[in-house]
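Appendix B.2, paired examples.
Example (i):
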Amino acid sequence: MQDSIEHRLGKNGEENVIKVAIFASGAGTNTKKIIHHFREHAFIKISLVVCNKQGAGVISIAQEADIPVLMIQKERFLADGYLTELRAAEIDFLVLAGFLWKVPAVLTAAYPNRIVNLHPALLPAYGGKGMYGANVHEAVINSGDSESGITIHYVDEHYDNGDIIFQATCPVLPTDTPETLAAKIHALEYQHFPAVVAEAINAWKSLQ
């Protein structure tokens, strides 16, 4: 995998297309923002959307943008990560945008420091299995924390455990509900996630 990437980038990292796969399980609002952000990018291309849920909104978003969709099943994903399909598509970088399955070791080994995830809380708090969506926001509100936010981090073989790339915060008010807090978190996601993805890709590219 690495040899083919270096060949396409060139010995000195000359500009060529870096292909990105977005993994998503739901409505795809962050995926839509990322697709738009990179639509005219000089060398970063969203080449594939990977989805694990039939009927998810992200499928329509990918189709409208003329991006191929790879539907995956859990047993095989945990076994081989669909690495054959990712390699066939020459995918260089993976972005998890509301993807709810744990990434298997076969993928973290194949893409070291090339998988980033968006988490709707300030890690290391409120991470781990089951900590997604409303579950996170309810836990933050029930704890009495005065702030929450987003964490963008590299992915390793453990839930929400990789090195943190970026965090942004928002206040948690006594009147907040999981729904109002979610709206604040979504605003931070839309504002920051695409740009931080670009920074992570550029950081990796600079090392090639």
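Example (ii):
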Amino acid sequence: MPSTLLNSLSSPRHITTLALLAAVGIALFVFESFIPMPFPFLKIGLANVSSLLALMVFGVWEMLLVVILRIVVGSFMIGSLFSPGFLLAIAGGTASAVAMAGAKATTRDLFSVVGISLIGSVTHMMTQFLLVLFLYVQNQAIVFLLPLLLFSALVGGLVVGWIASRLLGVVGRIQMGRTLSK
């Protein structure tokens, strides 16, 4: 583990805040699995709010920890651990985390929280799309779904980014040890 993650885990407040973000991500992951969708692959991705907040408040390694925890524990809770859906989620989540970390690292002012969320959402969807195309379906006819998937990723990225931007101050105050009433 990189020293920055080890340093942040040495503080009880950081551990607690990360655990809270992971728990919220797991709860949203499970909650969203019960929402009926016209297609199972068209989800907003509400659990990504916790990952985005971890990136913005802590950093890359903390975000990766939250991503892996929420996908593994959430998949275990809904009974999809090590299923094709789990493999798609872990691949999409990891690729999305790397893309969001890259977007944040380019220049702090270049991308807003919503912009970083959009990059992560589109990366997540494209990773899953390519895996489905090459590993499962192996039929180029699914390319016709791409506009619908991109639209879904854009809507999801906007929603997740907007929610995260609204919660960023609250999580920052918790992490810094300030009360919510201030």
